[in-house]
Task: structure prediction
Amino acid sequence: MKVPYKTAVRLFAIYLCVLLVITTTAGLANEKLARKEAEETVVILQYTNPMFYELLKENATKENKTVVQYYYEKLIEVRGLNKNVIIQGIQLLRQSWEEIKPIKTVKLGRAVLITLGVLLSSMLLIIFTSITVGMKIATKPSLLDFVESLARFFNGIPSWWIAVLFVFIFAIKYNILPASGLMSIPPEEGVGLAFDILKHLILPVATIVFVFVWEFIVIVARETQREFGEVYIITEIAKGMPNKVIYWKHILKNIGITLSSFTGQKFMEMFTDYLVLDAFFSLQGLGLLLKSSFVREVVPNVGVVVNFRPYLFFPLTIIIATLFFLISLVIELIKGMLDPRVS
Result:
């Protein structure tokens, strides 16, 4: 197997660009948060410490600045924040990691493992089902047309809508599966805990599989049809080679090339859907943590206020970008293994 260096370099370049965008955005957020803090502090000082406010106003007037602008610049200076946006972003990210570590409710390692477990399980089930079903319906045009209609239908349906439907049927109406959470409370022990976690993951995994599997089945079926028209397959059939051997020895390898490419294309969409489903099912993965970075509070005389937590949001976006880069790289390596031309 040759390593597809050009593809790896291209993916790494995209990854670096994404990191730069995240860092720049973090810097802008850091600057805005400091400015907001300066505005709020100045308003508070007007009532709690008028003498200090007058001193700030006097110094600000000497420098021909507003009180807020003067206090903001002093705040930046005291905290050692560089005025460069990228440097501010790096400082915010560094500070974020330090603030997240002592928080017991934020378990990044566990969240990453849950995310990878659900995504990889879903992908393996989708690929296995699509190969098994797609090869069988390749010779049945009417059934293939029906599956194509299903693929178009589910391509336009939000994954959370399917999740709501599954929860209503299997958790509420028939009470077969748990509606949310990663495990029962109180948690079981030993082998019982493992089965309990698997039981809680059935609906999230089933939702992802049910939404995406139809497109994969169509891809496999169409590729199988195309392969049956190739001269070497016709020759093998003429020699009397069994269909099972033709399917698994010749057709599957060529289908694998197309399937790996299509998996790479759909992975980002699958990842995005997973983040929504993770928050919906409360799986304690990256999606739920991402939701936690926006805290909704009800403030008297004001209403509902959504507070942004940058110290949680930006590290999560970097982790998500890194996971996407690594999994995309693995998919490209698999493509290189199946098709040397990729290298």
The chain has two domains: 5-100, 108-292.
